[in-house]
Amino acid sequence: MLDRLRPPARPARVALVTDSTASLPPGLAERWGITVVPLGVTLDGAERHEGVDLRPADLLAVLTAGRRVTTSQPPPAAFARAYAQAAARGAREIVSVHLSGDLSGTVRSAQVGALAAPVPVHVVDARSVGMGLGFAVVAAAEVVADPRASAAGVDPVVGGRGGGRGTLFERLPPADGATVAERARRVAAGSSVTFLVDSLDHLRRGGRLGAGAAALGTVLGLRPLLGVRGGRVEVLEKVRTRRAARERLEALVLADVAARGLGRVAVHHLGQPDVAAQVGDRLQRALGAAVEDVVVSEASAVIAAHAGPGLLAVVVAPR
């Protein structure tokens, strides 16, 4: 799906920056020139950086052993450096898209870093995480590559409605930062992240889920289906077994896509690639032409640190 997207043929006037929780597929950020600022993850007192010197297998081993893991947002200086480098490469504006401000201080760090930027920076709070954020960044990249993508329902890769060579679409000027940022906001606002975990303890300890909701799952032996809605983690439903939770997760995704129409889907996991691949295959078969290829990937280290072992998540985003 994402491999067929064509990056701009020349340096873009609008540069894109995001953070490592976007869970972008390998190689996509490099191919499109998207700068990814890593979040920090501290394992047994040693700080590492997601996507730089931290492997998912290392994190899974620490979490499974019950050892302490903490995360930290990038400092403003990291964003200021990324913005300065983008400007030095010729960018006249920057769009910086990040995970929900209710889940991390990353957006605030980006806003502070933008104060020192040599060019205007549009900081976008995606109010989401994982590919809920990642698909918003992809949508922004599409607009940078082809301004036709800012129009709903237009595919910038295969051509817009009635958009052949020499049409008005072909003569559109490059999109500006405000247009690119608005496209990212629209896609992020229309996305949903639904997930299940083995234990709610990690979410409770990290402050991402209220103690009452976490206690309910523990005392009653229920497995809540959780979701990121409006930038926050919420309990959507409660079921008795993991198998039932997985089946209900897939049912919710199918209903979500049916309500939205054409869309994009991603499956994230921590340490269970076979299960995630099976879920992705079932969703692809059930949805058919309603979605592009389902992206299956390991969850980002920061997401995994707060969700814990057994994480299985599905993201739905508008096209």
Explain what you see:
Keywords: Lipid-binding. GO terms for molecular function: lipid binding. Pfam families: DegV. This is DegV family protein. It comes from Cellulomonas fimi. There is one protein chain. With 319 residues, the chain is of the alpha/beta class. It has 2 domains: 2-39 and 74-188, Rossmann fold (3-Layer(aba) Sandwich); 192-318, Hypothetical Protein Tm841, Chain: A,domain 3. Helices cover 38% and strands 22% of the residues. The chain has 11 helices and 13 strands. The chain has helices at residues 28-32, 56-64, 76-88, 106-114, 131-145, 177-189, 201-205, 211-220, 242-260, 273-287, 301-307, and strands at 14-19, 35-37, 40-43, 46-49, 69-72, 93-98, 121-125, 192-196, 223-229, 232-239, 263-269, 295-298, 312-318. It has a 6-stranded mixed sheet with strand order 10-9-8-13-11-12, with helices on both faces. A 4-stranded parallel sheet has the order 2-1-6-7, with helices on both faces. A 3-stranded antiparallel sheet has the order 4-3-5. Strand 6 (93-98), helix 4 (106-114) and strand 7 (121-125) form a beta-alpha-beta unit. Helix 3 packs across helix 4, helix 5 (131-145) runs antiparallel to helix 6 (177-189) and helix 9 packs parallel to helix 10. The chain starts with 13 loop residues before the first strand and ends with a strand. Mean pLDDT is 84; it is low at 156-171.
